[in-house]
Every structure is written in structure tokens, then in C-alpha cells.
Amino acid sequence: MHKKMTLRQNHVRTGLIIGASFLAMGALSGCQSAISSLPLIHKQDILQGNVLDKDELSQVREGMTKRQILLLLGSPSVSDPFHQDRWDYVYTLAPRGGDLTQRILTLRFEDEKLLSIDGDYLDIIELAQEEAKEIEEEQRRIEEEEG
Hints:
This protein has about 150 residues and is α+β, with helices and mostly antiparallel strands. It contains 5 helices and 5 strands.
């Protein structure tokens, strides 16, 4: 036989359900950091912008034309129609569980020729140019020994 609940019993039951829901939500929100650190949860690295290769960067020289830079590095991530003599190559990496990394290469042109190179990529450019010089010297030495 069905028992009818009194109004008071109905309110108590509703209050218990709501209270249990809030407790469950609180417990689960506290587990967020524990859940995200589990090795079973896959978080993908987020890569945006232009990934510039060290070998390509070593070939960038002042005096190059816009066309040469475009063929070498590709289209810039940022090219302002109001400042057509400035190209920005921006690279951003957000590795899972790591800090955000951002690199910027700013190229300035005058009369369609590369005037200056600025930004975070300069250390990579310098290293790549040094390595390229060492390789060229090694190739010359080998050619001299063979010839």
C-alpha cells in the first residue's frame, strides 16, 4: 500500500537531496587538480603561429627582398595593412602542464628590402649562423685536403 508523504516529509526529502547535491559538487570540484594530474588524462600541447626552423633562420640576412623572406620563412603571422614594412612571426607553445613559451621575430623593411631583425629569435639566428659558418669552413677544409 502506498503511503502518502506529508508536506513536512516532502520538504525534508527535498532538502536532503539538495544538500547531498551540494556536497557532491564540492567534493568533485576539490578533485579537479588531482584528476588533471593523473597520467591517464591526455592533454595535448597547444602550438600556434609560425614555427621557424633554425636552418631557415640562419639564411635570413639584411638586404633580402620581401619575396625572398616569404619563400624562406612563409607568410608572417601578423602583417598590418597600415604598416606594410613590418612583419611579425609569432610562435606560441603551451605544453601540457608547463609554462607558456612565446617567441617573436620582427622584420622591418625599407624599399622592399630587409632593414632590421628584432625579437626573441635572435639567439637562435646567431647560433644557426655560427653553425652554418662552421659547416662551410669544414667543407672548405675537406675540399682543400681532397684537391
